Automatic annotation (TrEMBL):
Full protein name: ATP synthase gamma chain
Main location as per UniProt: membrane
Similarity section: Belongs to the ATPase gamma chain family.
Subunit record text: F-type ATPases have 2 components, CF(1) - the catalytic core - and CF(0) - the membrane proton channel. CF(1) has five subunits: alpha(3), beta(3), gamma(1), delta(1), epsilon(1). CF(0) has three main subunits: a, b and c.
Top-rank lineage group of the source organism: Bacteria
Its biological purpose: Produces ATP from ADP in the presence of a proton gradient across the membrane. The gamma chain is believed to be important in regulating ATPase activity and the flow of protons through the CF(0) complex.
Membrane topology per record: Peripheral membrane protein
NCBIfam families, A to Z: ATPsyn_F1gamma, PRK05621.1-2
Location in or out of the cell: Cell membrane; Membrane
Keywords in alphabetical order: ATP synthesis, Cell membrane, CF(1), Coiled coil, Hydrogen ion transport, Ion transport, Membrane, Transport
Length: 300
């Protein structure tokens, strides 16, 4: 009975230690997520504005440009996968990796060869463990990504996109990341960066909301030069925003996972405390019974 009490005490102590660690990690994630969300809010308007400007320019020009050029026989596609450097975030990394692999299967079913670009140690470790090949990898800055990270990734992707597929280039660029929706929800997102999907806005009919009005542009010297200048800015801004979204989603997922772990540890403490009290009461009852039995034996 004494050994059972010692075992329960050890388990209670272990659960208490675990709760202290998970509670501390939850508070750290809660403090970091506010900064991450502020960075997302600061970068999103610029990313949307650049995307809108590129779409408007590409819509109202007839030039042939890599931004909007749809390859009739696309043979290679690049997928940029964004994960975190650390775990302890529930299904944060597994769900985005699953989304990227599903996208790869879809592209392969269309007859395209898929090449991966990886950001984050979890993606790199996943590919290394399964002996899957990636063209390029970046690690170490997933929690606090900088614009330099986005520029480095964008330069590599643009270089691959501007190279012919026969020479090792790609015809399409896709990015897969976790989009921050709320503190409780992080959704895997797939975005095709290039070629840019441009859809002519239909004119508003009677009783319909007016179509979005794009500003009119004058190009000096030519629209091609404008789009050439916008191409790296567009890719950098979209990738930077995706990196910030992923970082904010990671902190939210960590906070949620650590809160769940703390609640589970508290439940274990309550359960083991109840079992320890029952075992102690059973031991006391047994000792009283032995004393009474011994006294009766002496009396007889």
């Amino acid at each position: 009975m004494g050994a059972q009490l010692r075992e329960y005490k050890q388990r209670i102590s272990s659960a208490q230690t675990t709760k202290k660690i998970t509670k501390a990690m939850e508070l750290i994630a809660a403090s970091r997520i506010q900064k991450a969300m502020a960075r997302v809010r600061a970068s999103s308007p610029f990313s949307r504005a650049v995307t809108r400007a590129v779409s408007a320019v590409a819509t109202y020009t007839d030039i042939d440009h890599p931004l909007t050029r749809e390859s009739e026989n696309a043979t290679r596609a690049a997928v940029l996968l964004l994960t975190s450097d650390r775990g302890l975030a529930g299904a944060f990394n597994s769900q985005v990796i699953k989304e990227a692999l599903a996208l790869a299967e879809l592209l392969r079913s269309e007859g395209k060869e898929v090449v991966f670009y990886l950001f984050g140690r979890k993606a790199v470790g996943y590919f290394q463990f399964r002996r899957m090949v990636a063209v390029q990898e970046w690690t170490g800055d997933a929690d606090t990504p900088s614009f330099d990270n986005a520029k480095e990734i964008a330069d590599a992707l643009i270089e691959a996109y501007e190279t012919d597929a026969e020479e090792g280039g790609v015809d399409e660029l896709h990015v897969v990341y976790n989009r921050f929706v709320s503190m409780m929800t992080q959704v895997p997102e797939t975005v095709r960066l290039l070629p840019l999907e441009v859809v002519d806005a239909p004119a508003a009919g009677e009783g319909e909301a007016p179509a979005e009005l794009f500003p009119l542009y004058n190009f000096e010297p030519e629209a091609t030069d404008v789009l050439d200048a916008l191409l790296p800015v567009y890719i950098q801004s979209r990738i930077f925003n995706a990196l910030l979204q992923s970082a904010a989603a990671k902190q939210a997922a960590t906070q949620k996972a650590m809160k769940s772990a703390s609640d589970n540890a508290e439940k274990l403490i309550i359960d083991y405390t109840r079992l320890r009290n029952n075992a102690r009461q059973a031991e006391i009852t047994q000792q009283i019974a032995e004393i009474v039995g011994g006294a009766d034996a002496l009396a007889s």
